[in-house]
Amino acid sequence: KILIIGACGQLGSELTFELRKLFGHENVIASDINAPKMDLADEYFEHLDVLNKEELNNIIDKHNISEIYNLAAILSAIGEKNPKFAWKLNMEGLINTLDVAKEKNLTKIYWPSSIAVFGPDTPRKNTPQDTIMNPNTVYGISKLAGERWCEYYFQKYGVDIRSLRYPGLIGYKSLPGGGTTDYAVDIYYKAISGKNFECFLNKDTYLPMMYMADAIKATIDLMQADKEDIQIRSSYNLAAISFTPEEISNSIKKTFPDFEITYKPDFRQAIADSWPDSIDDSKAREDWGWNHEYDLDRMTEDILLNLKRR
Ligand code: VAH
């Protein structure tokens, strides 16, 4: 059985839904430190603080868990407001997960990394899998250190830990939680409600992004891949599309011609400026057949169509 840690989050809520479709509701236990929303609040939900190793062990024993997806994290923007807690949650949460995987000989572990592991002196275009990595956000530092721990537990203890360096994830089913790429989610909600949008990044801030459907597909593809095909045990570069706030607003204007965007950069501009423009994910494409499906206009169309239905 699978345990999702952080099931109420932006990625966790969608991944829980998709994994339950694939493996059956009763085989995917959702957990979070926050109270669940309606569709998660049932006997297959457990309260869990990932920093509480005893609570984690009890849930693994109670539900006979063999795989864990640990998605609990403080993201980049909130991390800069609360650096010590961001480090504590992101690092100790991962190490607790790696420890129980080793002690209980769990089958597989998933842990998300991010393009935030790259820093201001990383090559910005088509950033390679292996390159200079001097992140200057606590979130990025924790993800880079976390990648080192993942590779250590794989090499030293044989823990089958798998990881992806997600770009900014854009979805309509769940609200994002304190990231620097969140503008690209909020913009659709503003467009659909006929409001104008004030963007906290400059109009030409180019960032690697991905539709949530592609991120879910990549995660499940990676976790289903044969162990021998996984050549990278730190974390795989993963890419789909890159765009600027101006480009995503132009994509929206094809449906809402009167939509207006203004730009008012805040502290998140410096975080965005420290990240690459585009990512080279050829290793993921070579090793386990990664291939994205959504480009910007197709993503916009799908999001607006689904938000209209609500
Ligand atoms: C953040 N959404 O903004 C996350 C992600 C690449 C961005 O790691 O912090």
TrEMBL record:
Chain ranges of the NAD-dependent epimerase/dehydratase domain: 2-229
Signal peptide: none
InterPro entries per UniProt: Epimerase_deHydtase, NAD(P)-bd_dom_sf, NAD(P)_epim/dehydratase
Record SUPFAM superfamilies: NAD(P)-binding Rossmann-fold domains
Domain of life: Bacteria
Family as reported in the entry's similarity comment: Belongs to the NAD(P)-dependent epimerase/dehydratase family.
Protein name: NAD-dependent epimerase/dehydratase family protein
